[in-house]
Amino acid sequence: MDESTTAAVPTNPWAYAGAILLMVIPFGHLFIVDISINFLLGTMVTLSPDAAALDAMRATTADWGWVGRTTLYRGFSGFSLWLVFSFLFLGGYTLLVLRHTQVGDLLRRRALQLCLVLCVVFTNLAVACFILAPVFAGSLGVVFFALALRREPR
Q1: What is the number of alpha carbons within 13 Å of residue 74 lying toward its C-beta?
Q2: What kind and span of H or E run contains 91?
Q3: CA-CA distance, 51 to 127, in Å (whole number)?
Q4: pLDDT for 41-64, tens place per residue?
Q5: Where exactly are the structural domains of the chain?
Q6: Whole-structure pTM value
Q7: How far is it, in rounded angstroms, from Cα 117 to Cα 108?
Q8: Cα–Cα 20 to 30 A to 101, which of 23, 61, 69, 126?
């Protein structure tokens, strides 16, 4: 390991906890949303009042003209996977920024601010639209990144 890139890295356990949380959230999402609805329907999750909702989504096409068309089911599934990869990328990027001294305090602080803002937005969206698990995860991210920013040099 090169001493010049790791020797002076400030230790901020809250920042690392937040970045790791960003990399764990996608697996919870993948299991709770994608796997449970597609493979554990009736066992882990039920659809009410009509279990045929997924079939209706598969049969319904959204057409944006020259932009393209897709079924509602494929559109929601694609967005779901996009969310998974976005969180993995952001968590990995944040870990890399935290690890290297060359990025400097300002870039590290900006990366943590971005993570905090995204966690606040995600948490508000989760409160309005989702179940309790993402509300809890997003709130935890807000706490981790807020505490991490308090420890970062200005």
Answers
A1: 10
A2: helix 72-99
A3: 24
A4: 777 788 888 878 888 888 999 999
A5: 13-151
A6: 0.81
A7: 14
A8: 23
